[in-house]
Amino acid sequence: MDTFDQQYIWHPYTKAPNPIKSHQVLSAEGVYLNLDNGKRVIDGMSSWWSAIHGYNHPVLNTAITQQLAKMSHVMFGGLTHQSAIDLAKILVEVTPDNLTKVFFTDSGSVAVESALKMALQYWHNKGEKNKQKFITIRAGYHGDTFGAMSVCDPENGMHHLFSGVLPKHYFVKSPSIVSMEEALVDLEVALKQNSDSIAAMILEPVVQGAGGMRIYNPQYLTKAKVLCEQYKVLFILDEIATGFGRTGELFAMDYVDCEPDILCLGKALTGGYMTLAATLTSDKISSAVGTLMHGPTFMANPLACAVANASINLLLNSPWQDNIARIEKHFYSELLPLKNNNKVADVRILGAIGVVEMVDDIDVEKTQNQLIENGVWLRPYGKLLYTMPPFNMTDDELLTITNAIKVVI
Ligand SMILES: *Cc1c(COP(=O)(O)O)cnc(C)c1O
To answer: Which parts of the chain register pLDDT below 50?
Structure first.
């Protein structure tokens, strides 16, 4: 542990100086992180949902070094490169048929910003200049930039800090909190009253991640999409957390037959190696938008695109469905019984996602130290203790995680 780090470096969602010491990672290999205190811990977080194949993977290492020998970066304005072309081809192929245009960005939040811009420019160019608001379900999370933040849950999110600056959008009941029927009625009422001013609905399909780790009935997507079409509101799915197998389908929207107008991808896109995100849309939307007024400096970074290609191919050529089913089964047998523990409020499981919601807030520092003693890295927040392991984790390694969760509970 480094005192310079604690004194001088701002870590996510913490104070500087940081009251809690960060654990220093010396190297990472497979599903293990090697810490500077000599401990080797299993990463049950996949580095925030992204390292789906684990660390230091030979196939991904090769892809990135081969690209590095050619060039690490070139601007994307007026130039292009094979890794971006190959990646766009795969993304168009594996996502719904209507999605044929790919806009690369450098982070998930910016992919969301681009999606929101696309929706606004679409209606602007269609002459519907009042359609400048968004609608979303509560308990969502879409990133930390201003546009993204404005559609995060208004209570969990950072709205109270920035309420004077954040645009006000429409929040409706989440099917992860109330019944699907009740959520749909709430959506329809809001659309009926306000659709003249609403450009798009944005939501995370099936699993709401950082906004509370909640799961809902995929049928809601189909029905919400129909309502949005009826009220002339575009439908944006944020698959940044759920994409690339995590929920048991390649994309969570694949649980139903749902074609979003705009789709955001990120996190596991590069197998957790580099920062990269993408926003996909249809011919219909892109032709009405025309010139998209966005262009990050490191857009479509070649190293990131090369490793994303390798990661997606590695995933598609692996028995990922069997792996996710195996992990889900493990969570059902090891985590679900914790529902009977009086300190546990709820247990939620889908695919390679296992969530234990406690009755009381978790003491993060104490819990994390205990988890590390038990050979596991997790990052609890609020009342939530959860794991989203790399897909190639063995049953023994999974057991180490679920046993550590039981110990700290
Ligand atoms: C993480 C996340 C984002 C933001 O991605 P960053 O790369 O952290 O900017 C947006 N939406 C969802 C659903 C996410 O989980």
So the answer is: none
* Sequence-separated (6 or more) residues with CB below 8 Å from residue 197: 130, 131, 132, 133
13 is catalytic: yes
Strands 25-29 and 214-215, by their bridges, are unpaired
Supply the pLDDT for residue 102. 98
3-class secondary structure, 203: strand
> What dotted CATH number matches 3-56+319-408?
3.90.1150.10
Helix (H, G, I), strand (E, B) or coil at 281: strand
CATH number of 61-317: 3.40.640.10
Distance 341 CA to ligand 1 centre (A): 32
**Active-site residue, from 173, 225, 267, 273:** 267
Element (H, E) at 324: helix 320-334
Q: Which atom of ligand 1 is nearest to the CA of 204?
A: 13
| Domain ranges within the chain, ordered by starting residue | 3-56+319-408, 61-317
**Catalytically annotated residue among 43, 106, 153, 238:** 238
Q: How does pLDDT run across 92-113, given as a tens digit for each residue? A: 999 999 999 999 999 999 999 9
Please state, in angstroms and rounded to a whole number, the distance separating the CA atoms of residues 131 and 194: 9
| 238 labelled catalytic | yes
Does the beta carbon of 400 lie inside 6 Å of ligand 1?
no
The pLDDT, as a whole number, for residue 158 is: 77
As a whole number of angstroms, the distance between CA 110 and CA 101 comes to 17
With a CB cutoff of 8 Å and minimum separation 6, the contacts of 361 are: 382, 383
Those residues with Cβ within 8 angstroms of residue 382's Cβ, 6 or more apart along the chain or in another chain: 361, 362
User: Both tokens of residue 328?
Assistant: 């889900």
- Other C-beta atoms closer than 10 Å to the C-beta of 236 total 27
Query: Which pair of structure tokens corresponds to residue 92?
Result: 């168009």
**pLDDT for residue 1:** 56
Helix, strand, coil % over all residues of the chain, rounded to 5: 40, 20, 40
Q: Is the CB of 115 under 6 A from ligand 1?
A: no
- Joined tokens for residue 112: 């969301």
Q: Label the pairing between strands 214-215 and 207-208.
A: antiparallel
Atom of ligand 1 nearest to the CA of 209: 15
- Provide the pairing of β-strand 40-43 with 376-377: parallel
